[in-house]
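Input record (Table S2, row 465):
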Amino acid sequence: MNKSTTLREHLNEQAWQLLKNTIIYHHNQPIGTVAASDPTVEALNYDQCFIRDFVPCALVFLIRGNTEIVHNFLIQTLKLQIKEKQLDFLEPGRGLMPASFKVVADAGNQSLRADFGDHAIGRVTPVDSCLWWLFLLRAYVKVTGDYTLAHQPEFQKGIRLIMGLCLSARFDMYPTLLVPDGACMIDRRMGINGHPLEIQSLFYTALCAAQELLVNNAENADVNLAVTNRFQPLINHIRRHYWLDLERLNEIYRFKSEEYGEAALNQFNIYSDSIPYDQLSRWLTEDGGYLAGNLGPSHLDCRFFTVGNLMAILSGLASEQQSQKIMNAIAQRWEDLVGCMPMKICFPALKYRDWEILTGCDPKNRPWSYHNGGNWPVLLWMLTAAAYKTGRPELAEKAIEIAAARLEKDDWAEYYDGKNGRLVGKESRKYQTWSIAGFLLAEEILKNPDAIGFMTFKSYIPNHE
Ligand code: GLC
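Output record (alpha-D-glucopyranose complex):
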């Protein structure tokens, strides 16, 4: 065994020990992991278990055969889901799941206290939690073969409520989900309200999971039909209208505006002056492309958002050809998108007046910091899984090597700053659990690429393609 293999094994072992130390117990049962264990700063809510943060941890536990913690997590978080309609309508909608929860002890009694964004900074709505929960339930069922858990009446009801929340009639004409700003991993104001890609990719993933897990019976008939009916419109909408490559940029650049009626080519009335076409025409490579960040009336957000693009590959929301082009973009714009730590949460950063208006002058989200163009180690697992799904393992290996050289030295930082991600984030936590789990998960995929089977879905091919 050579020296670097031994070092990597040592690193893996260290990460695994750290991950195990983050486990939270409820009545002596493991039920989740804290978000971070940084002894040097006030915990705020980082001592809680976040649903989105637990996902990579859960996948590592599943791969390593520790299925019990994931089983308990799924059961306990399902109990926290909003089940009843509130008469004052001030409570969150039925089906919603909290961003995070913690175990509280009251007179010797332990209970779980959930945060639906009612305590979180900025009072942001955790739309993504219920979508991640479904993704994880499906992964658990695939790994363990335990369909009976998902088929239990409470679980079927939970899935129906999530789908009901996503698929019910609303003030919107699009097949995508309309959400407020900060409703996902980016949980601060970042100008992503509307129809952000991250939510759409997770919504599609949740639809796939629901289709696999909902039993075919009379009680589920309506929801099953609604799920089936949403696939095609959602896929067509995203693959067509969110897609950006040189060819599409050229079309948008020459768009006519103010078109009325069904035959309009520029359906969303995008004004080409609102598109950074000069930068984009230089940044896009011949065979690269990606899904844009958001789409609405006269609004196409051309920023590259990583979770949305990578989850579109894993779920099959992006077509196979688009998936290859997204990976080409990552490979050819490596310095911008991966740089010194895999990988950027979005690119490019908002600057000057855009930063002032769209973030509300948020100092934590200064250009190239935190959510505004920071680099997040947790994204390594999605990059690795997407690289394997598209047959590009060399990209995963290169990214993991970069991360392995720094993560331990930097005490498993939460995020990195700077245009190329060279600086440890200004307010970054140390010992951030999903940085540890993201690395371990990437390593597990590298050792056993078949594991991506329970994090991915087959590409859906619309009838007319
Ligand atoms: C930050 C991140 C969020 C994460 C939380 C806990 O708020 O923006 O995505 O879930 O920290 O790590």
